[in-house]
């Protein structure tokens, strides 16, 4: 049996990608189909609260990207499921795998749903014959996306990711220039809070969903260090937050409560500039869809024990799994059409678990030396006043020989480690909040 992949060994000379190129991959992973739903989410969350939570979600998602790799370094593994198993045991491993499948299948289905909507709108204007949405989905899936799904990791897609990201400014510019032309009324209200805050949190969780691609991108780095990963991922997250905020503000200020789950649907099919934006967005989605699909395949091949690298089986099994899984995604995209519900439910039900709850818990259990016991132990070493006005020194700690905790826990905890530990708890709490209350609100129409 092949051993688990580890993070330590450096790639051979000339192998791997630069920090900047991997950063483009991560940025391309974050800026996917979720961006066109942000004006809709901003209306539901409220302009003030929505923008604030967009920034908070970006910061928390960046911590999750760091936490996964940091925990992988300590556990010696380079796979999301392996890190979760090492940190949280079999139960966490199964929760991750099923949540990952729901999240990533939903993400790829959404990409293909959008491609079907965009392609149908363009075909209605520029083709001399009528085509159905289902036919567009299947054609684009087979011709534009499937050929990009047979690499071993996302490294070879780095240059295509750069092309995809460069499409985004053109899309944003087209929306910014044309949206005021179709704005209804002299302006829109800017409420602090909106009518459907929790479903909007699901959209934000979905938009910043990127942990599924952490290890495929990390292992594609030429310099496989935590510092290089932080530079690549933090730059990508900051860029994604800026682009997302700009897109959300422009779309909301133009259409307000009328903003649709795909903001491009607010424009008529006869607008040439918007049709160019539709085309560029379709190209971007075709190049982004593989980033969402690779984790599906990695999770499925791990669950079925047919991963060529980790289980020593032939590549044919992996290729067959790729085709079957992608056929399921394409079939679902051709069948379903409710984008708003899909964004909210997938984000609340699964993206919150995959991108916030499990990375934070894995870090707390295996990625740091800080624990509640260590914090209490350090706190008890501080002299405290007695209840009768006097003071006394507390009893000395037990001798080291009687303490079964690792020696590092006896050292004074650093402020940085304490801060990361506290942040991990905040990330886990945020994920549980979105998952439990958000899913409940969506299913009950709140």
Automatic annotation (TrEMBL):
Question: Where does the UniProt entry say this protein principally localizes?
Answer: membrane
What domain of life does the native source organism fall in? Eukaryota
Ranges for domain Amino acid transporter transmembrane: 17-365
Places the protein is found: Membrane
Q: Which UniProt keywords apply?
A: Amino-acid transport, Membrane, Transmembrane, Transmembrane helix, Transport
GO cellular component terms, alphabetically, are: membrane
Q: Molecular function (GO) terms listed?
A: L-amino acid transmembrane transporter activity
Spans traversing the lipid bilayer: 48-70, 91-114, 126-150, 157-177, 197-215, 236-255, 275-296, 316-336, 342-366, 418-443
Pfam families, per this entry? Aa_trans (PF01490)
Q: Where is this region: Disordered?
A: 384-405
Describe its membrane topology: Multi-pass membrane protein
For this chain, the family text in UniProt reads: Belongs to the amino acid/polyamine transporter 2 family.
Name of the protein described by the UniProt record: Amino acid transporter transmembrane domain-containing protein
What organism is this sequence from? Coemansia javaensis
